[in-house]
Amino acid sequence: MNGVHDMGGMHGFGRVEPERDEPVFHGAWEKKVFSLRFACGAIGKWNIDMARHANERMPPAEYLAATYYERWLNGLERLLVERGVLSARELETGRSVAPLPADERARVLRADAVDAVLAAGKNYRVDEAVPARFAVGAAVAARNIHPAGATRLPRYARGRCGVVDRDHGVFIFPDANAAGLGRKPQHLYSVRFAARELWGETAAPRDAVWLDLWDDYLEPAPAR
Amino acid sequence: MSESPHDHDHPAGSHFTEVELRVKALESLLVDKGAVDPAALDRLIDTYEHRIGPRNGARVVARAWSDAAYRRRLLEDATAAIAELGYSGAQGEHMVVVENTPRVHNLVVCTLCSCYPWPVLGLPPVWYKSNAYRARAVSEPRAVLRDFCLEVGDEVEVRVWDSTAEIRYLVLPERPPGTDSMSEAQLAELVTRDAMIGVAQVPVPGGGAG
Question: Which of A2, A92, A170, B83 is 20 to 30 Å from B102 at the Cα level?
């Protein structure tokens, strides 16, 4: 979706302001949002692409004004209701009407499993022999598409030409995964775009931006 | 600025902010529901406050500076090489390490959200997640680096890595001069989080121009 989360190249946000001796969390509520979000994710009712897309759908004016963990909280509440962990009524009243079903209860993240779950992570690579549409070195263009749902193709790259620099292998395709349409596994490439191709002649001549882009985002570069 | 975490109003008669009250309500609802184990929450928080952070990445960098064969493995298959030191898993499942040289300066960003290599750097700082960094790192990286007091010469190629997929990036900074006699452990002490994101260089030990 063409949302405010797709920030690459926007103006008006001012300087980047690092904080000296920054703590990992600013206050107890941030710790809770982080840990609740991770723990709820472990129940398995949503995947990473659904989770990201939940944050992206925060109303744009609210998103821009919110802190990072406020966005996470908003996204978590949306996920819990949309994916059926809580009813809208439960979220509104704060009162549990029915316990989690037994099969989901069995997947609740327990303290003694945290270390192993973190160390294992998730595997986003798919062990399937899907043919690659592009070879390393191929001249490609990011397609000029504007999906209304989740996508990991930023606006600033659409319609721009680059070169495939590395083939990461076959990965889950987020646009499908976020919509619950399955993994649609396909090759993921690291694609180099010259800074001047993206930002025009005022960009430094040697600089470049690398994006990780899936087959469905790419087409052969038009002849120039 | 708008992203300060401390600018919320306190509702009348409460010493908690609105967002704090909302989080407390959600937590108690989820515990009642049986959806979260409070001890698991504590363990998660403790892990990222005390056990998983940029010291992990610093050890990876120091090993690469000290051991040429490790450096080669790290640049060829970062996930496996980092796992050799015991770091793996959530938000670092598929790692790529990019190397700074006198001719190349690498910078990592996530313009769409805040993707960051947790196993080696821990959770990201607020500035990494800020609108300003996400907006500007791809379009004017040299100006962003100046916000960090880092000037990169015209002869250097700036490479920006926008983390749009599940690949996570770590910058292997340049080893500072005057460190030939230092042990791997001493080298690890020098390496900063910001150098591994690419907004700083590793400072020369003992002061000097960094």
Answer: B83
Q: How far apart (Å, rounded) are the C-alpha atoms in residues B133 and A8? A: 9
Entry pTM: 0.95
Give the one of B17, B123, B131 whose C-beta lies nearest to A24's C-beta: B123
Q: Specify the number of domains making up chain A.
A: 2
Interface residue A123 vs chain B (CB under 8 A)? yes
Q: For A6-24, how does the pLDDT look when each residue is reduced to its tens digit (9 = 90+)?
A: 999 999 999 999 999 999 9
Q: Report the relative pairing of strands B157-162 and A208-214 from DSSP bridges.
A: parallel
List of residues 6+ apart from A191 with CB closer than 8 A: A140, A142, A162, A163, A164, A165, A210, A211, A212, A213, A218
Residue B113 bears catalytic tag = yes
pLDDT band at A129 (very low <50, low <70, confident <90, very high): very high
- Nearest Cα neighbor of A145 from A162, A158, A160 is A158
Is A125 among the domain residues? no
CATH of the domain at A156: 2.30.30.50
Q: Are A159 and A103 part of one and the same domain?
A: no
Task: Clarify whether B115 is annotated catalytic.
Answer: yes
- Both tokens assigned to A218: 């790419």
Q: Does A67 contact B4 at a Cβ distance shorter than 8 Å?
A: yes
Radius of gyration of chain A (CA): 20
Is residue B149 flagged as an active site residue? Answer: no
Q: For this structure, is B110 an active site residue?
A: yes
Residue A206 lies in a domain: yes
List of chain B residues whose C-beta atoms are within 8 Å of the C-beta of residue A154:
111-112, 162, 164
Regions in chain B scoring below 50 on pLDDT:
1-7, 209-210
- A208 interface with B at CB cutoff 8 Å: yes
- Tell me whether residues A25 and B45 touch, CB distance under 8 A: yes
* Containing structural domain, residue A78: 28-120
CA atoms in the 13 A half-sphere facing the CB of B113: 25
Choose the final residue of a domain: A120, A147, A179. Answer: A120
Please check whether residues A143 and A116 belong to one and the same domain: no
Answer yes or no: is A7 within a domain: no
Please report whether residue A175 resides in a domain: yes
